Amino acid sequence: MNHHATDAHTLAAAYTLGALEDDERNAFHAHLQACEACRQEAAEFEATAARLATAVAQPPPAVIKAQVMAAIDGVRQLPPRVPTHAAKPARGGMLRRKAVPLALAASVAAAALGGIAVWQTQNGQDLKAQARQAQQQLDTISTVLAAPDARTVHGRAANGALTTVVSSDRQNKAVFTAANLPTPGAGKTYQLWLDHDGTMRPAGLIGHDGTVILTGNPADAGAVGLTLEPAGGSPQPTTDPLLLMTLPA
């Protein structure tokens, strides 16, 4: 699919996630050599995708290897795939870019849901509900990250935590990721805030390293704040901000 030159600036997320056709990927790779802004944006998307995967990763249960090895002998192998006819390409570039959320979801889900998918049937409805909730979160995260107007900003909190915010005005959503976040302590939690012209409004809780979708209206906010609050959160900040990070314009 052919694109106008201006379209190249919207392909950073798709390029990073390997969701471009060969000709588009080659063209964008050449574009990167001359566009510092797109090189920076592609690098930020790559770092953010890796951080998101790490933040939501869950180790499989200790018994999973034994269960899988025991089940192998009873699993029928699939026959080799033999193509019967050539698939007709249809709007390849557009479909690839629309598939970016799925590509991101797959990359994050590999870490977050890999263990759950194998053993959830043995752990009842609770794990199924957790899997559905995790998938919904992944879908929202991937939609924000793959939005054409997605913008990324990185920061460091006063307690040393590394933070990333990806926001999209078009989706009116923002994703917050924290790494190296110290344990808040008994009876405490970290709370996120959206700064609306000096008024701090609650935007969700994060108790440890991970990724959350900010609540509220990020499109009208100028910054994201992080404070240490009593468990359950507070209607207004009760401590000095550990982080006040300006949202990307």
Automatic annotation (TrEMBL):
The keyword Membrane applies. Residues 104-241 form the Anti-sigma K factor RskA C-terminal domain. Keywords: Cell membrane, Membrane, Transcription, Transcription regulation, Transmembrane, Transmembrane helix. Residues 7-39 form the Putative zinc-finger domain. Its main location: membrane. It is a single-pass membrane protein. One of its GO terms (molecular function) is sigma factor antagonist activity. It comes from the Bacteria. It is found in: Cell membrane; Membrane. The keyword Cell inner membrane does not apply. Pfam families: RskA_C (PF10099), zf-HC2 (PF13490). One of its GO terms (biological process) is regulation of translation. InterPro entries: Anti-sigma-K/W_factor, Anti_sigma_zinc_sf, RskA_C, Znf_put. One of its GO terms (cellular component) is plasma membrane. The chain crosses the membrane at residues 99-119. This is Regulator of SigK. The lineage of its organism: Bacteria, Bacillati, Actinomycetota, Actinomycetes, Kitasatosporales.
